[in-house]
From TrEMBL:
Enzyme class, broadest EC rank: transferase
Keywords: Flavoprotein, FMN, Prenyltransferase, Transferase
Residues noted as binding FMN in the record, renumbered to the chain: G10, A11, S12, S36, R128
Organism of this sequence: Kineothrix sedimenti
Binding site for dimethylallyl phosphate: Y158, K174
Name of this protein: Flavin prenyltransferase UbiX
Gene designation: ubiX
Reaction catalysed by this enzyme: dimethylallyl phosphate + FMNH2 = prenylated FMNH2 + phosphate
InterPro entries documented for this protein: Flavin_trans-like, Flavoprotein, UbiX-like
Amino acid sequence: MKKIILGLTGASGGVYFLRLAQLLSMQEVELHIIASSNGEKVLQYETGVSLKEQVKLWGGNGAEIVLEDNHNLFSATASGSSGFEAMAIVPCSMSALAMLAHGITETLLTRAADVMLKERRTLVLVPRETPLSTVHLKNMTELSQMGATILPAMPGFYGRPRTMEELVDFIAGKTLDSLGIENTYYKRWEGKYEE
Ligand SMILES: Cc1cc2nc3c(=O)[nH]c(=O)nc-3n(C[C@H](O)[C@H](O)[C@H](O)COP(=O)(O)O)c2cc1C
């Protein structure tokens, strides 16, 4: 069974996390969720959702789900030997980007992502901020050069989305693509131009 880690930080855009976690919970995967305390707070503020309560609800969807403690560095997710294949941080704060770009790993979230980088496994970062400062851009460049996929929360409009759900699914679907999970949650460009 595929072992995947999903991280949540305190950037705006917890809706992307909620949808992605819901879609992953319907897959045959072992899903470990790691949230920063700011991530939980911003999620609750923006969506009214309590992460702990929501994880219980996803539990019935099929996947094996573990809600990790961000302060527990003894977790399996903190070690390369545990065999997690891929990790996504959705949304990824500029603070988390800075920590990762410089190897600072005091929390489980940053340690687990650092493990993905050192093991050269899949790490997908979904940053959300605007405008971006030079330091934000430099940190993204560093992480891209280290092998991470930088997948900004920038939905495309070529599928002519009509609802917020479609915009959210664009990012959730693209993130699943990068995690190596086939999906049809967003409208792919088919090369047909209509006037
Ligand atoms: C309502 C709210 C929205 C925020 N939005 C963003 C954002 O879009 N991007 C970002 O980098 N930080 C944002 N922040 C700031 C982060 O939460 C803050 O930098 C925090 O230290 C990140 O911590 P974490 O990476 O441990 O979750 C926001 C904070 C609040 C309260």
